[in-house]
Design goal:
Shape: globular
Number of helices: 12
CATH superfamily of the largest domain: Alanine racemase
Distance between the termini: 57 Å
CATH architecture of the largest domain: Alpha-Beta Barrel
Oligomer: single chain
Radius of gyration: 23 Å
Bound molecules: ligand LLP
Helix content: 25-40%
Mean pLDDT: 96
Low-confidence stretches: none
CATH topology of the largest domain: TIM Barrel
Strand content: 25-35%
Structural class: alpha/beta
Length: about 425
């Protein structure tokens, strides 16, 4: 459920017309709904009631301060994968002890930063990383609270580029070797073993892979506990999918059903459960608002050229992802439709948002909204093709604020400098 609806013939974010935002901020622009974010967090939190848990928002899905601060106020922690994300999380009000630092390639500088900053949990992905961390912790006189991320070799059944739990993937420590690495961790100075972690992929639309992975984890935790390895936390990662194309073969499980699987698999182990949802919390809480620059009739296709590009929303280009497209001006019920290709201005054939999509008759200068763009939209955007980073707006009831202003061209250029010797 989200709060982007037509009111008086115009698409609104909560109580604010998207036409007003376009006029005041320009396009393209990301618009987030605070009520939707809050609702999504609460639905998951309620589903997990009865078990000791912490929801650590996966910052990679959306590192906008307005979004993260909204979740922080609701009690969320953060799952971060870089020093930059950790700093953003703290800037948004998330205390370091509620931060989990994941990632296969944390640098020594990042590990040291995490220890100095008092990050609550480091999820380690290799024996090599464990040794490095032990040395750094000793040098700094700190103790690192660690979990090992286990690779359970379970197929998440999702897009190949966002599957992480197969043994061919670079992620985690093979589940058959994890016990040995834990025993080694127990002997290392500067290391305190606190938990075990898993994450098998993203946009899962089926609960079975979660169940398979969680049961493997369960077996491991039972073995570790029997060996007096003090596992207090089980981090189950993120990955629960959201509906992108309403009504079409992809109905992700409800959080309450996901929670049932969680409780059945690991609920009785006496551990605190940590979750790292990204998309589930923010996906449907954001849209990308764009204006039609031109209608172009090709030899065999009609193109709708919009002012957003793959640099602003790269999911369709990278994963052939589907994003719903709605005109901001409400189409007449039963009105004419035609199949068009919705494309951006970037000089790449992959800069296509929709192919042969049946849409209402659109006109030049009209506004459209790309749905379910709150996750992995702005956070994956770039300045490709010399386009300043896309701005972001937060809506709260009848008010809105620009949380990331559109940089001027001068500001974009001023980020770079030429050496004196290039005169
Ligand atoms: N935890 C870890 C260790 C992860 O690697 C990820 C996502 C998450 C949590 C959050 O997963 P979520 O709940 O959002 O599914 N750019 C891609 C998605 C990449 C996901 C990477 N890892 C996309 O746009 O679909």
């Amino acid at each position: 459920m989200h709060h982007f609806d037509y009111k008086n013939g115009v698409l609104h974010a909560e109580g604010v017309s998207l036409a007003t935002i376009a006029e005041e901020v320009g396009t393209p622009v990301y618009v987030y709904s605070r009520a939707t974010l809050t609702r999504h967090f609460q639905v998951l939190d309620d589903a997990l009631s009865g078990i000791d848990h912490l929801i650590c928002f996966a910052m990679k899905a959306n590192s906008s301060l307005g979004v993260v601060a909204t979740l922080a106020k609701l009690g969320a922690g953060a799952d971060v994968v870089s020093e930059g994300e950790a700093r953003l999380a703290m800037a948004a009000g998330i205390p370091p002890e509620k931060i989990v630092f994941s990632g296969v390639g944390k640098t020594e500088a990042e590990l040291a930063f995490a220890l100095q900053a008092g990050i609550g949990q480091l999820n380690l992905e290799s024996y090599e990383e464990l040794l490095e961390l032990s040395h750094i912790a000793q040098r700094l006189g700190k103790t690192a609270r660690i979990a090992l991320r286990v690779n359970p070799d379970v197929d998440a059944g999702t897009h190949a580029k966002i599957t992480t739990g197969l043994k061919e993937n670079k992620f985690g420590i093979d589940w058959t070797q994890a016990h040995t690495v834990y025993k080694q961790a127990m002997k290392l100075q500067g290391i305190e073993v606190v938990g075990v972690a898993v994450h098998i992929g993203s946009q899962l639309t089926n609960l079975k892979p979660f169940e398979d992975a969680f049961l493997r984890l369960r077996d491991l935790v039972v073995m570790l506990k029997a060996d007096n390895i003090p596992i207090q936390k089980i981090d189950l990662g993120g990955g629960l999918g959201v509906p992108y194309e309403p009504g079409v073969n992809e109905t992700p499980p409800l959080p309450v059903d996901y929670a049932k699987v969680v409780k059945a698999c690991v609920g009785d182990l006496g551990c605190k459960l940590v979750f790292e949802p990204g998309r589930l919390l923010v996906g449907n809480a954001g849209i990308l608002l764009s204006r039609i620059s031109r209608l172009k009739e090709g030899a065999t296709r009609s193109f709708v050229v919009v002012d957003a590009g793959m640099n602003d929303l790269m999911r369709p280009a990278l994963y052939d992802a589907y994003h719903d497209i709605q005109p901001v001006k409400e189409p007449k019920p039963g009105g004419a439709r035609r199949a068009v290709d919705v494309v951006g201005p970037i000089c790449e054939s992959s800069d296509v948002f929709a192919t042969q999509r049946l849409l209402p008759m659109l006109t030049k200068d009209e506004l459209i909204a790309f749905g379910t763009a709150g996750a992995y939209g702005a956070s994956m955007s770039s300045e490709y093709n010399g386009r300043p980073l896309v701005p972001e707006v937060m809506v709260d009831g009848d008010r809105f604020a620009v949380t990331r202003p559109r940089p001027s061209y001068e500001a974009m250029i001023a980020q770079q400098k030429l050496p004196d010797w290039m005169g």
